[in-house]
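Now for one protein, fold included:
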Amino acid sequence: MRIRSSTGRGLLAVGLLLLFYVGMIGLALGLLSLPYVLQVGPRLHTLLTVLCVAAGGAVLWSLVPRLERFEPPGLLLTEAEHPRLFEVIRDVARRMGARMPEDLYLIADVNAYVSQVGGVLGLGGRRVMCLGMGLLAVDNVSQLRAAVAHELGHFQGGDTRLMGVLCATRQAMARSLELFGRDEHALLRWPLAWMCGTFLRLTQALSREQELVADGWSVRIAGKRAHVSGLRWEALHAAGYRRFLEQEVWPLAHRGVVPDNLFEGYRRYLASAAWRESLGELTAAASERAPCPYDSHPSLDERVAFAERFDLPDVPVDPTPASTLLSNLEALERCFTQRLWPHAVELMSWTEAGARWSVLWNETASRVQVRVPGFCLARVVELLQDAAAWGPFAEAIQPRLVGYRAPDRDERVLEVVSHAASAYLASILAQHGMVWRTSPGEPLRLEREGEPVDPTALVEGVLEGRLGVEAVEGLCARLAVARDAAWSVREKEREEALAPLVPVKVEHAGDAVTVCAPFSRLGLPHCCAVCGGDLCRHVETRFHVGGVLNDDGDITIEVPVCQTHALQPHKAFKVRRYEQASDLITLEVPSLEYARLIQRSNA
């Protein structure tokens, strides 16, 4: 089985590489010789010599390869500790006629990769292989053998040596581009930028072909079934693992609380209803991703189609979980989890997750209590029945919805109402003896004397008309919760709930209206910044800072615009000032009404 020849792309890439180095060295030599060619006065000659030597030296320095210090990417595994894993890797290497990697590291991802470290331009150094703990958690032994054969195939093809040269050249090109500034229309920058872009596209195309060659090793060593199922399974779980982290881990980690065994949590997540419901979406997303000329890997469909063309005998699949190749798995998982978050304030077991998540829900309840005066349990029931009240309530809780004129406004409003009402109801019920319970991928529930209550399902049922408010009222009556029960808020919590998302200062002088706020945190209303109309899309727009007569650089803003002003986002603002140290930006906006809208949407 052969793939299409990469000779043409390779020769063109080498030609561009040589052209780049010859051109830049020629430019440097030209700058260094310029003072001796031009006939100028002594004073000007000295100044010209200093400038040309500095410029020529900077060009030559940008071409010098940098020695990068190797930072261990994960936990170093040894054969003495994990003989079964090393036995599998050594067997694959022996069948391929490949040399074993000198170092094997355990990383967190559902991924595996190899590199050659410690050398210069891909020459010398030692071979390093990295295996993802997530990969070992979801693969069987045959799929792991396929992944190992693929990675060793990169060593066999010399890909890691070639990558050293390509990476050094890309970095030299990037440093050279920086020398010519950021003006895309500069005379010398344009051809260099074109060369860099072309070189990157060509070398990434070569990288995609190298991936297919490595896939060939995987199919021959582990078999077509293990290879193809591994590709699909790993693509699915790479997305699933990211979703697990986003939904179950990072919200708690941002508060300094981390589960003591990340991978135990992922196994629980794979058994949850949330995982089953997301399978179709994640599977489709893995196959439907649009290819890009800058991709380093072929698409999943292309890799599967390439593997299917091999006509080889079927290889039996070993269904044994790959994680069993690791010794003392649970202790290793706990140790590895702690290494991922060395500065975590506190480690918790997954059985404590409900109580930890309840803190976030209590904060939402405090926000409701403070931002909606007079709110109580009876008002929850009234709110769920009054659709006209949903918009003002959602804007009070989530100011980003103020001025929100995108097509999904109703959906966003309903999300905020549902979550805020669920959090408030649950917090009140927990005050009356119910206990928080949850597990990865499962909703936060309450329980008392064996009676489980899902507050989110209860509130959503009423909002969607599947349940009557009697379901909420009956539950509260059984727990003897008064209709006027309210969430108690301490003074510190009140201050936090009233604090603006972003402080925005509005000034009105004559016809000019300006807003001043931290740029990185500022949220613009989801309506047209030019006319206040319905949002069509955001347009990334570059604005000059300080006006025409000042040279304070440029800044890029994603401007919300309507269909009418889609080609005129530059009319939305004038950037008066931007102080990078303080991150404060001063924008002149079209009207006082729009300035007040910005202020309210960041309240």
In short: The longest strand covers residues 537-544. The CA atoms of residues 193 and 425 lie 58 Å apart. Residues 1-6 have pLDDT under 50 and may be disordered. The longest helix spans residues 189-222.
